[in-house]
Amino acid sequence: MPEMDPRDVAASYDRIADRWDDASFPRGNGIAAHERALAFLARGGRALDVGCGCSGRFIDLLLGRGLEVEGLDLSARMIALARRRHPRVTFHHADMREWASPQPYDFISAWDSLWHLPLADHERTLKHLLAMLAPGGVCLFTAGGLDAPGDKTDASMGVPMYYSTLGVSRMLAVIAEAGAACRHLEYDQLPEQHVYVIAQRVPPTPPSFGSAASPR
Prior knowledge:
CATH topology: Rossmann fold
Strand content: 25-35%
Order of helices and strands: HHHEHEHEEHEEEHEE
CATH architecture: 3-Layer(aba) Sandwich
């Protein structure tokens, strides 16, 4: 089956966006993972929610931690609902593959969003997001926890939806190639092959201990 264009995925989310805006939506989903990721960030600063949707649960958490938060989504309906929920937050209706900020972020969340990328764009886009981190910045994202690259299209949510994964080994290699380190990887929904990853951009290496001459 051919890959779906991300605009087709966005159109599918347009059709079901109200599910995430409903009072019955499980707002606790992903919160514990975000709290674990935030523990690696010893400062405030700027945050970006990639594939933010409209539930606002991660935005509320990040705002509560004193971060200045922005949202990014390709679904026009999701963005409209998100703006209604958080009128003072800046939202970008854009494609994560191409969108870039003039300033780096201290925290980036991409919960259940990167895996909708075409497999051919997955590696480049992950590196693109990690490059938007300030030194020491943290990125939390989810992925399919397979051993090898793969993709599929299904309609389990009632609309056609495309998913892809680099596979765990390649994903970890891409993180390292992007100048970041994996701080945590967890299969959090077994038996579903769903993993969340916490990556941190490695700061410039400080002088090694004892490198400077010291008086005797």
